[in-house]
Amino acid sequence: MKLFYLLLRANGPKVMLAVVISILSGATGFAVLPLFHHVWDHSLLQSPFWIGAFVLLLVVMVFTGYWGQIMVLDLALKTVRDLRLELSSKILSTPLRELERMGSHRQLAVLTEDVTTLSRVLPFITRFASDVTTLAAGAVWMFLLSWQALLVVGAFLVVGIGIYHLMLNRSMVHMRRGRDEFDVVFDHFRALHDGSKQLKLNRKRRKLFLFGDLRDSLEAFRDHAMAGRRVLVGAEVLTRFLFFALLGLMVFGIPYFLSEGGTEVMLGYVLVALFLFRPVNSLMMLVPDFGLAAVALQKIESLGLALDNLESEPGVNFDSDAGESLKVANWKQLELRGTSYTYRHRSEDAGFRMGPIDLVLKPGELVFIEGGNGSGKTTFAKVLCSLYSHDEGEILLDGVPITDENRESYRQLFSVVFFDFHIFGKLVSDAGDEIDALAKVRLNELELAHKVTVSDGMLSTQELSQGQRKRLALLTAYVEDRPIYLFDEWAADQDPQFKKIFYTKILPELKASGKTVIAITHDDRYMHLADRRLKLEEGALVSESTPRPAEGSAIS
Q1: Closest among 284, 278, 27 to 19, alpha carbons compared
Q2: How far is CA 124 from CA 18, 74, 121, 501, in A?
Q3: Residue 320 lies in a domain
Q4: CB-based burial of residue 200 (10 Å sphere; 0-12 exposed, 13-18 middle, 19+ buried)?
Q5: Helices in 42-95 by DSSP H: which ranges?
Q6: How many CB atoms lie within 10 A of CB 339?
Q7: By three-state DSSP, how is residue 467 classified?
Q8: Would you say residue 329 lies in a domain?
């Protein structure tokens, strides 16, 4: 029912029309049987009227069957599209820290595996409606032949359906457990991709991962899947047994229960039963798929509910021209006043605290941030650009406090290349038709023009070395043309030659154009180029200095 409601929610009238059409298809398909019975009984085999009626039934059956399935297929694919967009929208509206706690593997498993399962199963709803209609029509005809015989057959069917229902419930338990285990498997697949270099370099770790964690999870997933399917196969075999047992009951039992006309009724019942074998078998094949779809829908609802239960970020919109509650152009001063942020893992009581920090930033500044691993540099960067919402103190832009209402607008100040950066295939810029020309100039400066081209804002490739990919990430920041640039260990993967270009050419040019540049770095050799040098330790700003290079010093 939930699957049907999912389609109804998307477009109720069209879904109902498709179901009605499918019901008509099932009814006309079964109507051939009473028509044949009537023609045989009355010796009307050569009648043009009944031949025409037969042809009409065939045409209606084929047309409605095709039309109903195509309609629901179109609606199902649209529903899946909208469902993915809805979940993606919820993910983007959820605070970053909550997404990090939830884990990407769970989100990806739902968006791929579960939604794909729905896309495969939802179009079968019309077939389900058609087959159920055929069975209902068969039951009506059986009733017209003999209601006493139908009571006997019905009692037999109730027992069979009850047994099948119990077996199906048992199978669903294993399906749910298997789907839970798939989350773990998906996490291991992600580790396989992200950690392939470490696995290649460490034989012991590789063996432990491949024949330990991964195999154990795959084996657990297989065990649950096999247990569920074993029950379903048993139910299918039992159904076939019951079907032939029912035929035996009709052949040997109906003439016994009906003293008059028993043989004629028996022949009619056997004919109907043989005709109904196909829709019964079709329904039996659909039941496991609907079971998997029900489990997938539970997972989707679970993720959606989990996201709904988290406090969404107010003011997040997906229209770049809507809701700009803070003017970021021509800003004069960005101030952190006693700003701090604390986050905890669910298994920890203490957690990590960044701040309190007092800091003032102005346009056209070049600021370097240094500190050891775990000192809070990346956390500071996320708080500064408000990916993490500060929980104490204030962040003020030209004296205006940053709150939930203007946080979205405030974020538009920043172009950031994080250490764990991602490159999108399409560049985004206000340059319009000039974006290709602008990108070409920057690609030459970044020494990537021989490997990457841009056409209509699309990058030709991302198959580059790590250092070159970081340059490509810098290109995306260039074309965004935001007032503040923030680089998180950007130069760490660059060769010495381009590292020098970055510090002595790229950063000064950005500064000269009026941009504020904040670079998290360990490169002591270039520290004197900064206007200010900040040092973090254990989340606290422990020193702030203004570098003064020795007279006549130079970088070679």
Answers
A1: 27
A2: 12, 12, 6, 60
A3: no
A4: exposed
A5: 48-93
A6: 23
A7: helix
A8: no
Phi, psi angles (nearest 5°) of residue 156: -65, -40
- Residue pair 500/555 in contact by the 8 Å Cβ criterion: yes
Dihedrals phi, psi of 340, to nearest 5 degrees: -145, 160
Quickly state the pLDDT bin for 553 (edges 50, 70, 90).
Answer: very low
pLDDT of residue 365 exceeding 80: yes
Q: Are residues 370 and 463 in the same domain?
A: yes
How far apart CA 416 and CA 487 sit, in angstroms, is 6
Domain at 389, CATH number: 3.40.50.300
Report the CATH number at residue 88: 1.20.1560.10
Other Cβ atoms less than 10 A from the Cβ of 352: the count is 15
pLDDT in tens, 108-121: 777 777 777 777 77
User: Which is higher by pLDDT, 315 or 492?
Assistant: 492
The tokens describing 496, both together, are 């010495």
Going by C-alpha positions, the residue among 265, 257, 315, 266 that lies closest to residue 92 is 315
Separation between Cα atoms, residue 267 and residue 226, nearest integer Å? 41
Report which of 103, 107, 123, 154 is spatially closest to residue 6, judged by C-alpha positions.
123
With residue 126 as reference, give the H or E element that holds it. Answer: helix 125-145
Q: What is the pLDDT of residues 90-102, one digit of tens each?
A: 777 777 877 777 7
Residue 543 carries which DSSP code? Answer: E
Total domains in the chain come to 2
Element (H, E) at 402: none
* Each residue's pLDDT tens digit, 368-381: 999 888 888 989 99
CB atoms within 10 A of CB 185: 21
Q: How many residues does the chain have?
A: 556
Domain containing residue 267? 2-309
Contact 529, 507 (CB under 8 A): yes
* Terminal Cα-to-Cα distance of the chain (whole angstroms): 72
Residue 85's nearest CA partner among 113, 115, 121, 123 is 115
Q: What are the structure tokens assigned to 43, written together?
A: 């010796």
- Is residue 409 situated within a structural domain? yes
> Helix (H, G, I), strand (E, B), or coil: what is residue 544?
strand
What does the pLDDT average to over 133-149?
A: 81
Q: Which amino acid type is present at position 28?
A: T
CA distance 315 to 406: 7
What is the model's pTM? Answer: 0.66
Q: What does the alpha-carbon distance between residue 191 and residue 341 come to, in Å, rounded to a whole number?
A: 29
